[in-house]
């Protein structure tokens, strides 16, 4: 696989026709700690490391450099040394689809992570609105959770994404949206109004369960939020979980991102069937973890997502129970009309039902926006993502299911 194909057309390949180059590990997505280790290994003295990491960081994440040659404040010898061992390859864009409503979906392929890995594929979705742009990124290839209403759940987990692969999704998205110095935005889709950067928010609501990949997600949040580089404020990064209770407190303490909970039901019995993880971490424990979430406040509310399934979880009594359950938690409730996918047994609630539900929640003092489905025509909406990546052997799979 040749990742140079994804370099900006205007930038020269590092060394054309050198196949070995294509398999060099990419620095794109590396954390400061990783860069420091790498520089060390290539002879940079301890006292210089901080400065050199800062320089590299600026080129990688502020400038979006696609060639070491561009990094003019880094000495020629060090640039050549780095270029001999690393690439600046991005994930490969296998396909790009643009919805009628401007939503974009990219199918991305990553470099093989090892001998058994043929190069994982994941989907990544960009949702432009007039005053913001949200990038929905994936944390795993596939998912182990098997939530009964989610398309991704029908794909067996292949593996966790590395920190670099998670960060790489924002880099390639910024590049495709023309949001690095010297690039131009595409003309075939909507972007937020002038003066607003194309990507203002990042949500971990693509494929996978982020809290089953805790360390990599935490480190990726750190890299995305770094003010000298990608600069997405932590208040604009939301990690969504189906409820991996033991990791929720750690997320607040170690990553400091916003939290979203995929709730979807107010009784354990029903939630056990919709979100089977509930059998392990029932509602009471989940809500206790939310009450204790570090940093939650009225200014930093926890989002509760609730997918509207016709005749399953959409009654007024359930809306009232939802309000009761969330008492005392700084919360906003996001009602998501169910997005159908081929083979599903569920239907989306009728519009009047959704409105009635929303009104009960709103009258109880909660913001309860109904999330307008975006990108349904290209299967880019919540829960519709799925890639055809081949599965790893069972042993390799178990290693990440932990
Ligand atoms: N595993 C994490 C991250 C995925 S987020 C989590 O569960 O939170 C994706 C969001 O879309 C979740 O809230 C999920 O419950 C919701 N979702 C899944 N399938 C859906 C569908 N078909 N229609 C609408 N929302 C769906």
Features:
single chain; 402 residues; alpha/beta; nine-stranded mixed beta sheet; two-stranded antiparallel ribbon; 11 strands; 31% helix; disordered N terminus; binds S-adenosyl-L-homocysteine
Give a concise summary:
This protein has helices spanning 19-22, 32-41, 46-62, 76-85, 163-176, 214-225, 245-255, 268-274, 283-291, 316-325, 351-363, 394-401, and strands spanning 92-98, 104-109, 121-128, 133-136, 140-141, 159-160, 201-204, 237-241, 258-262, 302-308, 331-337.
List the helices and strands and how they pair.
Layout: H1 19-22, H2 32-41, H3 46-62, H4 76-85, E1 92-98, E2 104-109, E3 121-128, E4 133-136, E5 140-141, E6 159-160, H5 163-176, E7 201-204, H6 214-225, E8 237-241, H7 245-255, E9 258-262, H8 268-274, H9 283-291, E10 302-308, H10 316-325, E11 331-337, H11 351-363, H12 394-401
Parallel strand pairs: 4-7, 7-8, 8-9, 9-10, 10-11
Antiparallel strand pairs: 1-2, 2-3, 3-4, 5-6
Helix pairs in contact: 2-3, 5-6, 6-7, 7-9, 10-11
The structure holds S-adenosyl-L-homocysteine.
Distance separating the two termini: 30 Å
Portion in helices: 25-40%
Order of helices and strands: HHHHEEEEEEHEHEHEHHEHEHH
The main β sheet shows up as: 9 strands, mixed
**Rg over C-alpha atoms, rounded to the nearest angstrom:** 22 Å
Count of DSSP E strands? 11
The largest sheet has its strands arranged as 1-2-3-4-7-8-9-10-11
Strand content: 5-15%
Description:
It contains twelve helices and eleven strands. It has 402 residues and is α/β, with parallel strands linked by helices. The strands form two sheets. The chain has a nine-stranded mixed β-sheet with strand order 1-2-3-4-7-8-9-10-11, with helices on one face. Strands 5-6 form a two-stranded antiparallel ribbon. α6 links the parallel β7 and β8. α6 runs parallel beside α7 and α7 runs parallel beside α9 (283-291). It is globular. The model is unreliable at 1-21 and 389-402 (pLDDT under 50). The chain binds S-adenosyl-L-homocysteine. Residues 145, 147, 149-150, 205, 209, 240-242, 262, 305, 307, 336, 338-339, 382-383 line the site of S-adenosyl-L-homocysteine (SAH).
